[in-house]
Known about the structure:
It is a single chain. By secondary structure, the chain is of the alpha+beta class. Helix content is about 35%, strand content about 25%. The strands form 9 sheets. The protein has a 6-stranded antiparallel barrel with strand order 8-9-15-14-11-16. A hairpin with a 6-residue loop joins strand 19 (about 580-585) and strand 20. Helix 3 (about 90-100) packs across helix 5, helix 8 packs across helix 11 (about 375-390) and helix 9 crosses helix 11. The radius of gyration is 32 Å and the shape is globular.
Amino acid sequence: MAATKQKLIILESPAKARTISKFLGKGYKVEACQGHVCDLPKSQLGVDVDNDFALKYITIRGRGDILTRIRKEAKTASQVILATDPDREGEAISWHLGHILGIDTSKPCRIEFHEVTKKAVKEALTHPRPLDMGLVDAQQARRVLDRLVGYKISPLLWAKVKKGLSAGRVQSVATRMVVMREQDIEAFIPEEYWDIAAQLQFKPASGRKQSFQARLSTLDGQKAELPNAVEAEDAARRIREAQFTVSSVKRSERRKMPAAPFTTSSLQQEANRKLGFTTARTMQVVQQLYEGVDLEGEGTQGLVTYIRTDSVRISDDALAALRSYIPERFGEEFLPEKPNEYKGRKNAQDAHEAIRPTDVRRTPESIKASLSKEQFNLYRLIYNRFLASQMMPAVFETVTIELTGNGVGLRFYGEHKKFPGFTSLYEESTDEAPDNVETSSMPQLQEGDTVTVEDVISNQHFTQPPPRYNEASLVDALEEKGIGRPSTFAPTITTIIARGYVSREKRQLYPTELGRMVTSMMEEYFADIVDMDFTADMEDQLDRVEEGGMDWKQVLRDFYPPFEKTLAIAEQEIEKVEVKDEPSDIPCDKCGAMMVYKMGRFGKFLACPNFPDCRNTMAIATYIEAPCPVCGARLMEKTSRKNRKFYGCERYPDCDFVSWEKPVTDKCPQCGGYMVEKRNRKGEVWHLCANETCRCRIEVPQSEEEE
């Protein structure tokens, strides 16, 4: 008797294949293609721009054996089912597999599921569909755009400037954003300002004295602005001399709503802030949670839904399960009468749910023994955020008290958490500094009450430059500007760091000299490619292709002719930059030849001119004019492991002085401390006191700078 033929299911990940095999049993054979099996060739453009962008696809090296095995299984299968990831890339992989295996992709042959659970997979098998060519065409358009930009601009940079330089459609924009932020920081001029708080005392008719602190808000009816110590001292004097009366007391409630369930980008941001994960690490760990983890007593289970999404929607079934679980665990008072609703970002795709646990009753603690530390921490983050999203808001009792006297207005604002709501489980992190809000006991004052001044506290501050991007804030900025999509954020950041255009140090992102150089050239000759609005508009066009509202080749027909003209102009106008080896007076300690200066991805270094016979290299010892403020020895210009320039004493480790900013020979005229050089985009230079409590600023005349 002939053996019953099995159905063949093809998906991408071997881990997911193992999980699904256990769900389906003997009637199915599950194979993994391990990602893309066909792509444009690396050795040539692969796009015929003169023949309406005809594409040349080849089998990716290393995929031959995989395809041989899949072909063999397909020949004996009763049916071939394509089950790659439910996104553009997954649809394109299924399309290539369909062509290779001779499947009619216009007939139901494709399934998709958004969580790796037995229920979801079996449900998907009952609803196969034809291939979605909108998704396929959007992927092809993106792939060709990236290929044209990368393969056309990079050789030009190699020929005109330096071999090894490269450009990318989204990566170049991301690099430019990091460069622009650094330029803003370098150009920033700190401005002094003061704030004043008064320590006040109130004795009610019955009861103990109450002390509280109120801040200066107005002077003579105008908003109080104190730019220097003289005005701050005058305001402090007026407060000491005043008799303050309560002019108004406003009591109210503030409700704080929970955050939406995670999208790809919000998960990357929160995991970066709370767990210290890079975007790449977040995606590696959450992929494991999605594909399936072997749980004690349950077998292999997918723990979270599909992980590449920009939607905050959750399914009706998941919502119903969550709303029945919250009262059981927290009590009826924690469940809102109606489900909380969330709006996604503009242009968000709603094909997938938000990232959520596949089973709300599978708590992080119940499966902790089966998870690695990273898996547990990330699953707990996803789980708690999901639960919190459908809980009651936190309720705060607030009071704002205005006090007046002698033309001075003081304000007290305080709040007290009346009901914790979702905050009993989860609170969202932020890159912003916390608000200065009084959360302890609040004074019981009424209009007309008088208070006495116990003390006046004046604090000097300086405005701060915009913060450098970290991975979380760069992802947020990319998403806000419509640059890239959930699947591209992590690889974009990984790429610009790997290419040496951006370095990461203490979670902050810095542009390297190479990144600045490439950005400068791109801004001058390929302005559209690094223009944020242009790149965002291109993403919108790809979305229209996906939705069937635009022909994918029309995107290329609109893009390529002006791009080709820009290339031709750049070919003519970019003069050959001769990066000649600059000779030094330092002999090679291996062969004796005089070493030369070379430019690498991390700036200049010394190399032996007899390369490749001698491969000796040395770091450059560069001294600056200013002496060490601690011991008086010479200061050296150095480069950190993450390629950030800093200045340190030559006597290290005996003297541990270091500074990220370049010290100068001037002494501060106010406090006697050392000063550092600051420079803006226009080339204007000033010296700034390094003492945080002084920050005296001296302009440097242009003629002196030129000398």
